[in-house]
Every structure is written in structure tokens, then in C-alpha cells.
């Protein structure tokens, strides 16, 4: 995954609360073990009609949504099942961050492991973002802050290890593999006390 230190983008606003993972990526698309193609099926039941044609009134089908990397969603985003395909679909589509007042724990953890920044903000900031779709904001992982075009900057919670991984473009396995020499040295020091 690509490192994220600073993310500047226009926003797409999805003013729906309690969006569950089956709405993000419907179960019929979970037959794959790779991310490839999942972005095309993001919010499939909302984006497309029964004949497969895009619904012109859905936010992702509007011209102003093209190229936006930040999704502003309603409260309790990512609830439901623990499918890792949900953040895969969002990142495959092109999103790098989701902003909400509440993001479901399992979805948040899956996002952090897959290069999608979950940004939890207060009601006032969220309300402003909801009322200003398409506004350009900056997410700064160094300061764990979201900066609005008004000049206001709000902090959001982010665990230090997750922040490190996002900023360095590694997942947990990549982090461990990057410490292979230190692990080997530790094993050498343990000598006979180390079991394989």
C-alpha cells in the first residue's frame, strides 16, 4: 500500500447513517480473495439499476465525485459484518479516507490494515462537512488533524502503531518483515532456549 502522510482532496458526501458493510460491498461480490474489481462494485445496489446502468442521482455517479479521495459519511459507518472486502472496495475505488462521527470498530481496524484512514470528528465539524460537499480538506497524519478551508483544524484519534504503518505504507506483516534482522539477532541471543 502507498504511504499516506498528508492527504488533500475534495470530499464526496454520503448523507446516510448506519451504512453497513453489505451496503458498501454486497455479499455477492465476496467470492474474490483479491481487491481487483471491487471498486467497480462499491455501493453497487445504490449505484446501479437492476439493468446495471448507473443511477445518475447517486453521489458517486455525479461528475463532481470523480477524483475525490475522501468520503464523508453519516454516523455509524461500516457497521455489520467484518468483511475486509469493504475497505478493499473503498480503496480500489480511490478513497483513502472516510470521515464520520462514528466508525464501527471492526471496519475501522480493517481500514487501518488496508491503507484507508478512518477519521472520527465531532458533530460540529461533521455537520459543516455534510453541508459543504466537494470542499477541499487536508488530512495530516503527522499531526492527526483534519484541516478545513475555513482555517479550522480538528484533531482525530489514531493509534501510534496504525499511524506509523499508514505513514510508511506497510501492514502488520510488512512491519514484521522489515524487522527481520532484529528478529534474527534476538533469536541468536536466545541460543538453546529458542524453540522452532
Please characterize this protein's 3D structure.
The chain has a 7-stranded mixed sheet. It has a single domain (about 5-170), classed as Aconitase, domain 4, CATH 3.20.19.10. The protein has about 200 residues and is an alpha/beta fold. The mean pLDDT is about 95. It has helices at about 20-25, 45, 85-95, 105-115, 125-130, 160-170, 170-175, 180-190; strands at about 5-15, 70-75, 95-100, 115-120, 135-140, 145, 155. A hairpin with a 5-residue loop joins strand 6 and strand 7 (about 155). It is about 30% helix and about 15% strand.
SSE blueprint:
Layout: E1 6-14, H1 21-24, H2 44-47, E2 70-73, H3 85-93, E3 97-100, H4 105-113, E4 117-120, H5 123-131, E5 136-140, E6 145-147, E7 153-155, H6 160-168, H7 172-177, H8 180-190
Parallel strand pairs: 1-2, 2-3, 3-4
Antiparallel strand pairs: 1-5, 5-6, 6-7
Summarize the amount of helix as a percent range: 25-40%
Tell me the CATH architecture: Alpha-Beta Barrel
Biggest sheet, strands in spatial order? 4-3-2-1-5-6-7
How many domains comprise the coordinates? 1
CATH class: Alpha Beta
Low-confidence stretches: none
- CATH-level-4 superfamily name: Aconitase, domain 4
What's the helix count? Answer: 8
Write down the CATH topology. Answer: Aconitase, domain 4
Rounded to the nearest angstrom, the radius of gyration is: 19 Å
In round numbers, the mean pLDDT is 93
Task: Name the beta content range.
Answer: 15-25%
Largest sheet: 7 strands, mixed
In whole angstroms, how far apart are the ends?
A: 31 Å
Instruction: Please provide the count of β strands.
Output: 7
Task: Supply the helix-strand structural class.
Answer: alpha/beta
How do the helices and strands follow one another from N- to C-terminus? EHHEHEHEHEEEHHH
Q: Tell the overall outline.
A: globular
